[in-house]
Amino acid sequence: MTRKGRRLTLIASMLVVLGVAAGLVLFAMRDSIVFFYGPSELAEKAPSPGTRLRIGGLVKEGSLQHGQNKSMTFVITDSHKEVRVAYTGQVPDLFREGQGVVAEGVLLGRGQFLADSVLAKHDEKYMPREVADALKKQGVWNGGAPAPASNN
């Protein structure tokens, strides 16, 4: 084998090893990769039930219902679409209706979500970047500033 042939064989072998290593890393991470959606994006992309993901938006006014043993249901909305969320556990102190929230868990079916963790914004000017971006895209969030007065 010539010197050039050995070099090409070595490079090809290294690329194969690198490809296998990258494939193993991606395979190992498949359970920890969590996608973020707003309610409108969730309805548009329609991931299959059982998919692990994060949903962010505002807790709809009047939707919070408490059950037994720290269980609750509420609706996350972006003013266009809604997702009903079921959660059992302790919520952050700042969790309330009309506030920004991110819920992480499993999609049960169309418009139904089972959360295993809930995060709420921590002051009037902060909102998780994913939620703020999704709400800005919908034209709902104004960065914590008061809504402009309408000229009606």
Structure explained in plain terms:
With 152 residues, this protein is α+β, with helices and mostly antiparallel strands. It has two domains: 1-33; 35-138, Nucleic acid-binding proteins (OB fold (Dihydrolipoamide Acetyltransferase, E2P), Beta Barrel). Helices cover 29% and strands 30% of the residues. It has a five-stranded mixed β-barrel. The radius of gyration is 22 Å and the shape is elongated. The chain starts with a helix and ends in a 14-residue tail after the last helix.
Q: Total number of helical segments?
A: 3
Strand element count: 7
Count of all domains: 2
Q: Name the CATH superfamily assignment of the largest domain.
A: Nucleic acid-binding proteins
Topology:
Layout: H1 3-29, E1 35-37, H2 39-45, E2 52-59, E3 65-66, E4 71-77, E5 82-88, E6 100-109, E7 112-120, H3 129-138
Parallel strand pairs: 1-2, 5-7
Antiparallel strand pairs: 2-4, 2-6, 3-4, 4-5, 6-7
Give the structure's gist in a few sentences.
The protein is α+β, with helices and mostly antiparallel strands and 152 residues long.
Give short descriptive properties of this protein.
152 residues, alpha+beta, OB fold (Dihydrolipoamide Acetyltransferase, E2P), 2 domains, five-stranded mixed β-barrel, 3 helices, 29% helix, 30% strand, disordered C terminus
